Amino acid sequence: MVQFLQQLINGLSIGSVYALMAVGYSLVYSIMNFSNFAHGGVIMLGAYFGFFSLTLLKLPFVVAFLLASVGTLAVAIIVERIAYKPLRERKAPFLYFIISAMGASILLENIVIATIGPTFRTYPEVFSKVPITLGPLAIGRLDLIIFAISAVCLTLLILFIEKTKIGKAIQAASYNVKACALMGVNTDRVILTVFGLGGFLAGVAGVFFGMKYTVYPQIGNITTKSFIAAVFGGLGSLPGAVLGSVILGTIETFVAGYLSSQFRDLIAFVILIAVLVLRPTGIMGKVTEDKA
């Protein structure tokens, strides 16, 4: 029972990071109908922004954390303006967006390799590694902080979507962006806001993932897991992305704890295939057409 609870705690921690990543996928998908694979490159830059803010600039963690998140917000908007806006204006097929997204991801990764190098880097110790003990359970301080801040960020995002005028516009555009434009909604502003929100959360996820593990140019590949989580929960559904991420993170930790860490990725892709075959819309997704 103790091991079960310990693995559950670990699963909630990594699942909350997956959720921050998956929400970025779902936000873009709900509006633009394609999977933004460049999101992984933005997360990777977030990890580097946070690392160099702490090590080179010697900034306090809170300032470095905010700087990294704002930095990735700017990067996400720049990627949208350069890689996607010209395609939107030409009404290009969705396949072109996916190809452009993959190209942007590769470009960001190789820019980092060419300028910073492929060396693995480790975050300095910001929080004590001495765990908090609750009887036989040990909860890492970093895991607790990751879960708490992730929950706050996701809650604020949901409140923003539900309570603000631009949030209502995002909801409307997720149903039919063309109808929104005909009703006078500035869809360009909506898309820019969606990329900005996704970019900000990518920075949060990048910093936390870098702190929990290491920082390297291929760190964006971990977004494959968040994409699986988004598909599992239902692409285009924010609650679904969060739920799918928590479930996937929990399943991975249980597999690693009770079987072997070698089976962790295998189980994740088996889940992806099973969802695509048995329930393509995911747990909370909606039936749509022309999605890619």
Automatic annotation (TrEMBL):
Transport among keywords: yes
Molecular function terms from GO: L-isoleucine transmembrane transporter activity; L-leucine transmembrane transporter activity; L-phenylalanine transmembrane transporter activity; L-valine transmembrane transporter activity
Leader peptide range in chain numbering: none
Biological process (GO), any one: L-alanine transport
InterPro entries with a match to the protein in the record: ABC_transp_permease (IPR001851), BCAA_transport_permease (IPR052157)
Statement: the UniProt record of this protein carries the keyword Cell inner membrane: yes
Compartments where located: Cell membrane
GO cellular component entries: plasma membrane
Alphabetical UniProt keywords: Amino-acid transport, Cell inner membrane, Cell membrane, Membrane, Transmembrane, Transmembrane helix, Transport
Entry membrane topology: Multi-pass membrane protein
Top-rank taxon: Bacteria
Transmembrane segments: 12-30, 37-56, 62-82, 94-117, 137-161, 190-215, 227-251, 263-282
Family of this protein: Belongs to the binding-protein-dependent transport system permease family. LivHM subfamily.
PANTHER family: BRANCHED-CHAIN AMINO ACID TRANSPORT SYSTEM PERMEASE PROTEIN LIVH (PTHR11795), HIGH-AFFINITY BRANCHED-CHAIN AMINO ACID TRANSPORT SYSTEM PERMEASE PROTEIN LIVH (PTHR11795:SF371)
Protein name: High-affinity branched-chain amino acid transport system permease protein LivH (TC 3.A.1.4.1)
Species of origin: uncultured spirochete
Taxonomic path: Bacteria, Pseudomonadati, Spirochaetota, Spirochaetia, Spirochaetales
